[in-house]
Amino acid sequence: MEENPDPGEERQPCSVSVVLQGDGALQVEISDAVSERDKVKFTVHTKSCLPHFSQTEFSVVRQHEEFIWLHDAYTDNEDYAGIIIPPAPPKPDFEASREKLQRLGEGDSSVTREEFAKMKQELEGEYLAIFKKTVAMHEVFLQRLATHPTLRRDHNLYVFLEYGQDLSVRGKNKKELFGGFIRNIVKSADEALITGVSGLKEVDEFFEHERTFLLEYHTRIRDACLRADRVMRSHKCLAEDYIPISAALSSLGTQEVHQLKTSFLKLAELFERLRKLEGRVASDEDLKLSDMLHYYMRDAQAAKDLLYRRLRALVDYENANKALDKARMRNREVRAAETHQQLCCRRFEHLSDSAKHELMDFKARRGSAFRKNLIELAELELKHAKASTLLLRNTLIALKGEP
Amino acid sequence: MAAEREPPPLGDGKQADFEELEDGEDLFTSTVSTLESSPSSPEPASLPAEDLSTNSNGPKPAEIILDDDREDLFAEATEEVSLDSPEREPILSPEPSPAITPITPTTLMAPRIESKSMSAPVIFDRSRDEIEEEANGDVFDIEIGVSDPEKVGDGMNAYMAYRVTTKTSLSMFNKNEFSVKRRFSDFLGLHSKLATKYLHVGYIVPPAPEKSIVGMTKVKVGKEDSSSTEFVEKRRAALERYLQRTVKHPTLLQDPDLRQFLESSELPRAVNTQALSGAGILRMVNKAADAVNKMTIKMNESDAWFEEKQQQFENLDQQLRKLHASVEALVCHRKELSANTAAFAKSAAMLGNSEDHTALSRALSQLAEVEEKIDQLHQEQAFADFYVFSELLSDYIRLIAAVKGVFDHRMKCWQKWDDAQITLQKKREAEAKMMLANKPDKIQQAKNEIREKERVKDFKTVIIKYLESLVQTQQQLIKYWEAFLPEAKAIA
C-alpha cells in the first residue's frame, strides 16, 4: 500500500522539539516518504553550504534501520559523552492499524454499507496519521542533530546525509543483539549502583539535584504518557460509537412517516458531525499532548544516560585518584598514574561542564515545547467545543421549531 | 354487582347477545353504509362489548356479562404480551378487580347514539377531539416523583421502599400534595390491575419496570457497592417514568386503583407478583401454553392497516433495539473516558510536582485540575446519556412489546371469533357482527394515532433535553479550557 503525503502541503508541524536555533548552515528535512509493505522509505533532503559536501542540495533515501545506526554511532562515540544525544525515532508501527483494517475487511454482516464505508474511512485516516507522525519523528531527530553545534560536525552524519548508496546497515545479528542486551543490563546495574548508595560523593549540588529530579521526572512522565494514551484511545472509541448511532437514527428516519422523520434525520446528521468533531479532538490530544509527552520521556531518558556517563567518568576519576595515591605510596609508576589521573580529571570536568550546559538547555527546551503544545491544545479544544456547541444549538433550534 | 364469572357456553350465550343486537341493528345500518367505504375489514377488536351494551335497554347487566366474558378470555390472552421478551412478564392479578366501566368509552358511545344520522368518520373525529380535550385539559397538572429509596428489613426478606410524592390540583384527589411509601411489588401489582382492566379494551398500558432477581438480591444482602446503588437508582428512575407515563393517559388517570395507589397509606400486598409464588408458576404454565397456541394460530391478516402497522412496529422494534445497543456502548465508553481522564489528571499533577521548571510546573498542575474537572463532566454526561437517552429507548422498546401484546390479543380474539363464527355460520347475525366490528377498529386506530402523537411529543422532549445536556457539557469544556489558556501562555 503506497501512501504519499504531498511534500510541503499538509506537513505535520514539528510538534515536539521546538525552537531549534539553527544558523541555517545545514538544513535537513524529510521531503517525501513511501510506505511499502512493512518498510518505510524516507527521502532525506539536505541544503547546505558547508564545504564538506560536494553539492549544495541533495537527497538520499533512507530507512529506519539507518537512522538507528546513526544514533548508535553517536552514543558509542566517547567524544559526545557530555551531550544529550537526541533520542532515536521509534520504529514505524502500523501493526495495530493494519490489523484493524484487516478485521474490517473480513466483514461483519451486522454493519450496513454506509457504516462500513465510514469505519473504513476512519481507519484509513488513522493509518495516515500514524504515517505522518513517524515521518515527523524521523525528521525531528535529524534536525536536532543538524542544529547542534557539536553533533553536526560528525562524519557519520555527513555520510548519512550524502552517501547515495545504501548504507547496508544490516539488522543487528544475534551476537550484536545479545551484546547490546548485556550492555543494557550492565548499564542498568551500574546505574543502580551509582544512583543508589555507592558512597560516591557528588560534590556538585547542581548535579545532585538534577539526578534526583530526572529520576523522578522520568518515571512520572512515563506514567503520564501511558495514561494520556488511554485517554486518547477512549476518545477514539467514543467517536466511533457515534457511527452506529447515526446509522440507526437515519434508518429510523427513513422508516418513519410523519413528524418524527425529519427529527430523526436531523439527529442522524448531528451525530455524524459530532463524530467527526470528537475524532478531531482525539487526534489533537494525541498530537499535542501524547506525542509531546512521549518525546520528552525519551529525551529525559537521554538526559539520564548523560548523567550516567558523567558518573562513570567520575568513577574513573576517583579510581584514577586512588591509583595515584597507591602509586605514590609504593613510589612506582607515579608518572603514568599522574598523567592518567590528570586525563580523567580533565575529561570529567569537561564532561561536567558540557552536561551542565546541556541539562539547562534541556530544561529550557522542555519549557518552550510544553508551552507551545499546551497552548495549541487549549486553543484546539476550545475551537472544537465551540463548534460542537454551535452544531448542537442549531439542531436544537431546528427540532424545537418543528410542530 | 352480580357478575357471572363463568363464561356462558358459546352457543347459548351468543344467542342472547345477538337477540339484543337485533334491536340495534337498524341503528347501525346507517353507519355501516358509510363505513363500507373505509378500508378496514371485519375485526373483532375488544370494544364490541360496549357497543352491544349501549344498544340494549338494560345496559349495565348485559355489559357486565360480556365484560366478564371478554375479561376471562383476555385474562389468559394477556399472558402473551411478554412472549418476545421472556423476562418482561406483565404479572396479572388473578382476578380482575370489579369491572369498573371505563368511563371514556361510554362517553364515546354517547354521541354516537344521540346522533344517529351522523356518519361514522365524523363521530370518530369528535371522539378523538374529546380525548384530545381531555388530554389538553388538566391532566398535566399532576406531578409525580419517586425518591428516597430506603432499605426496609433485613436479609432475604428485605426490600426497598420508595417514596411516591404527588403534587396535583385535580379535584379527584383528596389533597393537593401527598406522599406514600411503596415497594416494588406494589408497582407491579398496580400495573397488573391496570393491565387486566384496560389491555383488552385496546389501550396501551405503560409497562412496568422489570424484576431483577440478581439486582435485588444484591441489595437485600446488603452489598454496598456501586453496582447495587446504580441498580437502585436505575430502578427509581424507571419507576418514576412509569408513573409519569401512566398518569399522562387520561383514562388510566381516572382509575380508582391508581388513585388508591397514589393516596392510601396502606396497600394490600400484591402477593401474586412474587416470582416464586403459586400464581407465578401458574403464569409460567399459561405462558407455555400460549406459546404453543401462538404458533398454531394462523390468522389471515385481512386488514391491510393492521398488517402494515404490525410490520412497522416490528421494524421499529428492531431499529430501536439496535439504537439502544449502540447507546449503551456509548455510555460504557464515556465512563471509560471519564476514568482514564481522572487517571491522567493524577499523573499530570504528579508530573507537575516533580517538574523543575517552575512556570511549567504551575501550568501542569493547572492542566491536571482542568482534566479533573473534565473527568467530572464526562461522568455527568455519561449519566445523562444513560438516564435520558438510553432508558428512554428501553422504555420505548418495552412499549412496543406492549403494543405487540395488543396485536396479539387481536390475534387471539380473532381466533376466538373465528371459532365462534364457524359455529354460527348460518346466522346472519354473524354478518351484522362483522359490520359491527368495523367501528371498534376505527377507535383502535384513533387510539394508536393518539398514542403516536404522545410518543412524538414525549420523544421530542427527551431528545431536546439530552441535546441540551450535551450543549451544557460543551460549554463547560469551553469555560475550563479558556481558563487554562492564560496559564499555558504564562510558561516563561
Automatic annotation (TrEMBL), chain A:
Domain PX span(s) in chain numbering: 20-168
Listed GO MF terms: phosphatidylinositol binding
Domain of life: Eukaryota
SUPFAM superfamilies named in the record: PX domain
Keywords from the named record: Protein transport, Transport
One of the record's GO cellular component terms: late endosome
InterPro entries: AH/BAR_dom_sf, PX_dom, PX_dom_sf, SNX5/SNX6/SNX32, Vps5_C
Gene Ontology BP term (one): endosome to lysosome transport via multivesicular body sorting pathway
Pfam family, one: Vps5
Family note: Belongs to the sorting nexin family.
Role summary: Involved in several stages of intracellular trafficking.
Protein name (Swiss-Prot/TrEMBL): Sorting nexin
Species per Swiss-Prot/TrEMBL record: Vombatus ursinus
From TrEMBL, chain B:
Keyword hit for Transport: yes
Region (Disordered): 1-104
Gene Ontology CC annotations of this record: cytosol; early endosome membrane; Golgi apparatus; lamellipodium; retromer complex
Chief location: other
Example GO molecular function: phosphatidylinositol binding
Keyword Repeat: no
Extent of Low complexity compositional bias: 27-50
Entry's localization field: Cell projection, Lamellipodium; Cytoplasm; Early endosome membrane; Golgi apparatus
Keywords: Acetylation, Cell projection, Cytoplasm, Endosome, Golgi apparatus, Lipid-binding, Membrane, Phosphoprotein, Protein transport, Transport
A Gene Ontology BP annotation from the UniProt entry: early endosome to Golgi transport
InterPro entries: AH/BAR_dom_sf, PX_dom, PX_dom_sf, SNX2_PX, Sorting_nexin_N, Vps5_C
Membrane topology: Peripheral membrane protein
Domain PX: 140-269
Family per record: Belongs to the sorting nexin family.
Summary of the function given for this chain in its UniProt record: Involved in several stages of intracellular trafficking. Interacts with membranes containing phosphatidylinositol 3-phosphate (PtdIns(3P)) or phosphatidylinositol 3,5-bisphosphate (PtdIns(3,5)P2). Acts in part as component of the retromer membrane-deforming SNX-BAR subcomplex. The SNX-BAR retromer mediates retrograde transport of cargo proteins from endosomes to the trans-Golgi network (TGN) and is involved in endosome-to-plasma membrane transport for cargo protein recycling.
Name the record gives this protein: Sorting nexin-2
